[in-house]
Amino acid sequence: MFKNFLMKKMLKSQLKGMPEAEQDRIINVVIEHPELFEKIGKEIQEKIKGGMDQTMATMRVMEKYKDDLQKVMK
């Protein structure tokens, strides 16, 4: 429960400027599927450590998991 609270706070700060309803939707998806987002985060970090630009690493990994992301966002 405390972990979810911290996760919500961190995500809220990252999603500033986005409509409240959309923020809540994204936060709920991340909390419901933490394993997917942990895997995505780790792969992005590996690519960055390998010398890839953060934006490019994020785009490549998100493209790889596009189908999984679409499933959990519905």
| Gyration radius from CA atoms, angstroms | 13 Å
- What is the terminal-to-terminal distance? 24 Å
User: Can you count the helices?
Assistant: 5
Low-confidence stretches: none
Overall pLDDT score: 91
The amount of beta strand, in percent, is under 5%
User: What is the helix content?
Assistant: over 70%
Largest sheet: none
| Silhouette | globular
Count all strands and give the number.
0
Order of helices and strands: HHHHH
Label the structural class: mainly alpha
Structural notes for this entry:
Helix content is 82%, strand content 0%. The protein is mainly alpha-helical. It has a domain at 35-74. The radius of gyration is 13 Å and the shape is globular.
Summarize this structure as a short list of keywords or feature phrases:
single chain, 74 residues, mainly alpha, 82% helix, 0% strand, globular
What's the helix and strand layout?
Elements: H1 2-14, H2 20-32, H3 34-49, H4 54-64, H5 66-73
Helix pairs in contact: 1-2, 3-4
Question: What is the structure about, briefly put?
Answer:
The protein is mainly α. Helix content is 82%, strand content 0%.
